[in-house]
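Researcher: Going back to the complex we discussed earlier. I've cleaned up the inputs and rechecked each line, so this should be the final set. Can you rerun the prediction on the complete assembly and write out the structure?
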Amino acid sequence: MHDLIILGGGPAGMTAAVYSARKKLNILLISQDLGGQVLWTLSVENYMGFTFIEGPDLMRRFEEHIAQFPIDMRIGEKAVFVGQLDNGFEVRTESGESYQGRAVILATGKRPRQLELPGEARLQGRGVSYCAVCDGPVFAGEVVAVAGSGNSALEAARDVASFAEHVILVARDPLVADEMLVDSVKRHSKITMLLGHEIRAIKGFDRVTGITMRDLVTGEDVGLEVAGIFVEIGLIPNSEIVRGLVHMNDAGEILVNGYCETNMPGLFAAGDVTNVPHKQIVVATGEGAKASLQAHMYLLRTELLAGALR
Amino acid sequence: MHDLIILGGGPAGMTAAVYSARKKLNILLISQDLGGQVLWTLSVENYMGFTFIEGPDLMRRFEEHIAQFPIDMRIGEKAVFVGQLDNGFEVRTESGESYQGRAVILATGKRPRQLELPGEARLQGRGVSYCAVCDGPVFAGEVVAVAGSGNSALEAARDVASFAEHVILVARDPLVADEMLVDSVKRHSKITMLLGHEIRAIKGFDRVTGITMRDLVTGEDVGLEVAGIFVEIGLIPNSEIVRGLVHMNDAGEILVNGYCETNMPGLFAAGDVTNVPHKQIVVATGEGAKASLQAHMYLLRTELLAGALR
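Model: Rerun complete. Updated structure for the full complex:
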């Protein structure tokens, strides 16, 4: 039985692993990859210590950090089940393995809802972005599209418009967003709204060069030359694995307190999979550290308790 | 009037500055130094992205990050007053200057309570440490002392004992700590407790070589050869400047919610000066980012509100 099983190898999970290893806990890290969402981030300019670094490069540095420690890892495996045991938790993976841990940190992140269009997957990190805060400055002086009709799409449009030459907000559905935010975007001289348009394809070979949209009123297809497209149609927390086990909000985010504790003792959560505000690498690393230190205190407390009862 | 005034130039304040500058806010950063408590941290092995870096080097990298942006800075100045205005806040500094901001982020950190002994200040970062989690691994195979009688001293002793050859816990006063924690330290084969001893001097020229203690029972002075001393007699939040303005806990930490909001709209706080658990660089950077993004949303909201009322 491991002291701690960490699910997820993004910034939160990797930081939790380093902090836990430094506490000499016997840990197991299970993740489909090391890097998570950052792997498909074009550039990172807001992780302190690096004025500019590409997402995958930063994650390689995180990996080097992890490699300093004898951490038991199952990379390429997907955890599909978390259940409670008398003295901890059981985690099962897609490949049929079963692992046991006295505590678990869930750091499985979020996945962006995708348009699921031709070209989208291939051009991720090559003009297709899911993070305006991260990648906005990269498109200085360019014309870019933002896809979406909610607050995050409008905020993304405004964020990107600080840098881009011009932003075209493409929305299939009527806007469902704060009125004041809608007003400010409507008044913005560098943003054009294109409502009632459905994006049908993302074009480009090794970089995005444009999109094709269908005008839902006329039924005609329209082309648009853009250097990038920000897809802001929502994020899905990877929290299905603990559904029914811990409290979540309507968005499916795991509810944690300021200590990264869920409602279930011994089960911690950190980063984007939780209700922590702001989806940022620095925020996720901070939360990962908190979860690890809190899990360490939990193990200590329960161990001492067990010791006292012997 | 600035959009935002950031008080404090440690990890939380510098991160808030970078995030706010990227949002193109007109900000002013006031701090006695750039780097804060990290400047006197011997080595940092738990800031993700750097497997090992000296505290001042990491802070220089943070500084380079800040230098990318046209941030208005007053370094070497100490803010001594924060007051509310109709449309924001006024900040006054020790040198008599007065600044105005529509929002304020307080990231002034904590200061360790010092022993205030001969040699202590001179040997900071040269064997005198105030952070067991940060510097513990540096003393692998060495004999070190830990000064203090509370939970944090006991936890520090145990942390350091994972690495050090031996740890001597020196306490002047009777232990005031969790009984189970006291038990576990008492049973620990690599920790010796020396109660009723008052440390009188820290010895060493360019590195700590030992301490002198007074045995409070016999009144005799005793020397002890150690390679380092961890001073764990408490931390003092630098929150005096907003006393009476925002809610604090008994320790003087500013109470914030998960969004780094204090009870006063427009006044945010981040990092060690707040009630956020775990005093770590990664945690502080995460909190600084949150405070900045939240302050940005606040400014946007109030600006839009002002716009709507025009």
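Model: Worth noting: The mean pLDDT of chain B is 93.
Researcher: Good, that matches what I expected from the previous run.
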